[in-house]
Write a structure and sequence with these properties.
Elements (H helix, E strand, L loop, with lengths): L1 E5 L5 H7 L2 H7 L6 H11 L8 E8 L8 E8 L9 E8 L8 H14 L6 E6 L4 H10 L2 E8 L7 E8 L3
Parallel strand pairs: 4-5
Antiparallel strand pairs: 1-2, 2-3, 3-4, 5-7, 6-7
Helix pairs in contact: 4-5
């Protein structure tokens, strides 16, 4: 069972302990340091849960917010390359929890949130061409590559493939 809850400063230690180079490369292009992560989490905790930017912690277990942090993700209704009716979908899994199907479970839970949001008609996923696990998750959700490449949102020198998942289909 995956329990999504808003990402908060209390999740910081688990992120610092569980990050690796692969996660760092995919999320922000480098490893989080404590001051940078703390500043980010402080900003995130002030975001509205129904706002245009949403970041979630994915916990395993009970469904009561008491489980272990295994990953997370987000929905962004604003940002470069995102048009009205679209949202960027992101998902990530801490190193110790990869290979167990958690990526799909996290992404599927985020997809449920997106489907419940009337402002979202299409999800945009940006996936590194070499990240086959993320591509498999996207395909399992029903997303398809658009054939377009674009700069990574946080590491502009890197190129990612743009994927699309239309929600009203």
């Amino acid at each position: 069972m995956i329990d999504l809850q808003p990402l908060r400063p209390r999740h910081g230690e688990a992120i610092l302990a569980g990050q690796d180079e692969l996660l760092a490369r995919e999320i922000i292009g480098r490893r989080w340091d404590r001051p940078g992560l703390e500043a980010f989490l402080e900003r995130v905790q002030n975001w509205r849960t129904d706002g245009p930017l949403r970041e979630y912690a994915a916990l395993s277990g009970t469904g009561h917010g008491q489980g272990e942090l295994i990953g997370g993700g987000g929905l962004a209704l604003l940002g470069a390359g995102i048009q009205r009716g679209q949202a960027a979908l992101t998902y990530w899994v801490l190193k110790a929890h990869r290979g167990c199907g958690h990526g799909h479970a996290i992404a599927a839970a985020l997809l449920q949130h997106a489907r419940a949001e009337p402002r979202i008609g299409e999800l945009v996923l940006r996936i590194d061409p070499g990240n086959h696990a993320s591509q498999a998750v996207a395909r399992a959700l029903g997303a398809r590559p658009t054939g377009r490449s674009e700069p990574h949102p946080c590491a502009r020198r890197r190129t990612v493939g743009r994927w699309s998942l239309v929600l009203d289909a």
